[in-house]
Structures are given as structure tokens and as C-alpha cells.
């Protein structure tokens, strides 16, 4: 699994094959087929091994903070392995130990909120699918950075003649990259879930002071 993961980390799933793994290990390709049925099984085991290496912190208080940490753990994992979003499935999950452990830790955020199992699974699946969908951009962005020699921020500035975009001068601190999109989108996702969960669990604090 370590060797296969190294190959995928270096060149993506396109360069991963049983032959490539066997060659790097210095064994015959058929040696691997005695233990694995196909490349698909290999990629699932690689994904499981990646999730199994997650170090889970003590769950923070509150469902929102807990789900935020779960999303950030998954996001960090995709940065370490940009090929991983292509392997993880929400609707056809591989029920392997590392993946199951992540699911259980994340779903425990919803304990005690009075949500039925179907709703809990949809909350979890929506969160996982948001992170996974956004993470598809990591591999493409890494390739674009190598090809252009510029980060997305540098490239965006170069595309804005006179420092203007959409007719407005950029303000200090304005940014648009995968990290800001992930963080912004995650909070909006949690805002949406709060509309459904708050009546059952934590109620948002009312604003105080003058309207």
C-alpha cells in the first residue's frame, strides 16, 4: 500500500498499475495478483490506508465544530493525496476499517440531536461530498501551478489589468483560491444544516443590541 500510494502521489492514478507497483518492489507482477484481484481493489485499499492514518482529536463541543473538524481532516488528507477524491464514493462506499472509522467519528457529531438515521446519513454524505467535490480541484491546481510557475493568486493578479476585476479595484485581503473557497463554502454548508438541526439541538444565539 505504501509503494502504491507513493506512485499515485507522484503521478496520479493514471500512472498506477500492478506492473508499476511490482516493478518498484522488485517482484513479479503475478505476485501481487495472488493477493489482489485488480487495480480497483488496490485503489480502495490505498484509500482505506490513507484514512486509517488520520489522527483524531478529542471531539470539540457542539455538532457544528465537530463537523467542521471532520471536514478539515478530510480536506487535509486530500491535500496529501490529490488522487484520493477519485477513489472515495459517497453512495457506494468501501466498507473498510479506515473509512468506517472516519464515518463513525464524523457521525458522532450528530448524537443526541434527535435525527433519524436517514437524516444523519444525508448530513454526513452532504458534508463528505462537498469536501470531496471541492478537492477535485487540488490535483488540477497542482498541475496548473507546475505548468505556469504561478500560484492561483499570482495567476489571478496577472489576469487583472490595472488591478481591476469586474469594475472594482481589489480591496486589501481579497483572495480567491481553493482554500478560501473551501472555508467559505464549508461555513455556508454548516449554516444551511443549522436551519434544520437548530430546532432539535443547539439553537443559535439571538443577536443582542440595537437592530
How helical, in percent, are the residues?
Answer: 55-70%
Number of helices: 9
Helix-strand string = HHHHHHHHH
Q: Output the CATH homologous superfamily.
A: Tetracycline Repressor, domain 2
Overall pLDDT: 83
Number of domains: 1
What portion of residues belong to β-strands? under 5%
Q: Within the CATH hierarchy, at the fold level, what is the topology?
A: Tetracycline Repressor, domain 2
Give Rg in angstroms. Answer: 21 Å
Distance between the termini: 58 Å
Please explain how this structure is put together:
59% of the residues lie in helices and 0% in strands. With 211 residues, it is mostly helical. The chain has one domain (41-197): Tetracycline Repressor, domain 2 (Orthogonal Bundle). Helix 5 packs parallel to helix 7 and helix 5 runs antiparallel to helix 9 (178-197). The radius of gyration is 21 Å and the shape is flat. The relative contact order is 0.10. Residues 201-211 have low confidence and may be disordered.
Produce a short descriptive summary.
With 211 residues, the chain is mainly α.
Draw up the topology in text.
Elements: H1 2-11, H2 18-25, H3 29-33, H4 39-52, H5 63-80, H6 97-107, H7 117-148, H8 152-158, H9 178-197
Helix pairs in contact: 4-6, 5-7, 5-9, 7-9
Key phrases:
single chain, 211 residues, mainly alpha, Tetracycline Repressor, domain 2, 9 helices, disordered C terminus
Amino acid at each position: 500500500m505504501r509503494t502504491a500510494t507513493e506512485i499515485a502521489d507522484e503521478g496520479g492514478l493514471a500512472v498506477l498499475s500492478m506492473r508499476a507497483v511490482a516493478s518498484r518492489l522488485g517482484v513479479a507482477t503475478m505476485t501481487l495478483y495472488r493477493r489482489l484481484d485488480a487495480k480497483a481493489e488496490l485503489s480502495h485499499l490505498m484509500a482505506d490506508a490513507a484514512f486509517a492514518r488520520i489522527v483524531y482529536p478529542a471531539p470539540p463541543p457542539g455538532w457544528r465544530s465537530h463537523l467542521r473538524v471532520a471536514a478539515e481532516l478530510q480536506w487535509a488528507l486530500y491535500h496529501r493525496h490529490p488522487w484520493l477524491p477519485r477513489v472515495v464514493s459517497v453512495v457506494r462506499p468501501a466498507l473498510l476499517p479506515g473509512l468506517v472509522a472516519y464515518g463513525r467519528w464524523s457521525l458522532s457529531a450528530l448524537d443526541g440531536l434527535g435525527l433519524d438515521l436517514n437524516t444523519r446519513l444525508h448530513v454526513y454524505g452532504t458534508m463528505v461530498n462537498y469536501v470531496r467535490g471541492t478537492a477535485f480541484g487540488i490535483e488540477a491546481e497542482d498541475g496548473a501551478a507546475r505548468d505556469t510557475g504561478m500560484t492561483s493568486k499570482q495567476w489571478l493578479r496577472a489576469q487583472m489589468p490595472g488591478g481591476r476585476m469586474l469594475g472594482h479595484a481589489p480591496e486589501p485581503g481579497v483572495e480567491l483560491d481553493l482554500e478560501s473557497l473551501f472555508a467559505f463554502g464549508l461555513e455556508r454548508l454548516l449554516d444551511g444544516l443549522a436551519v434544520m438541526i437548530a430546532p432539535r439541538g443547539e439553537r443559535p444565539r439571538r443577536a443582542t443590541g440595537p437592530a
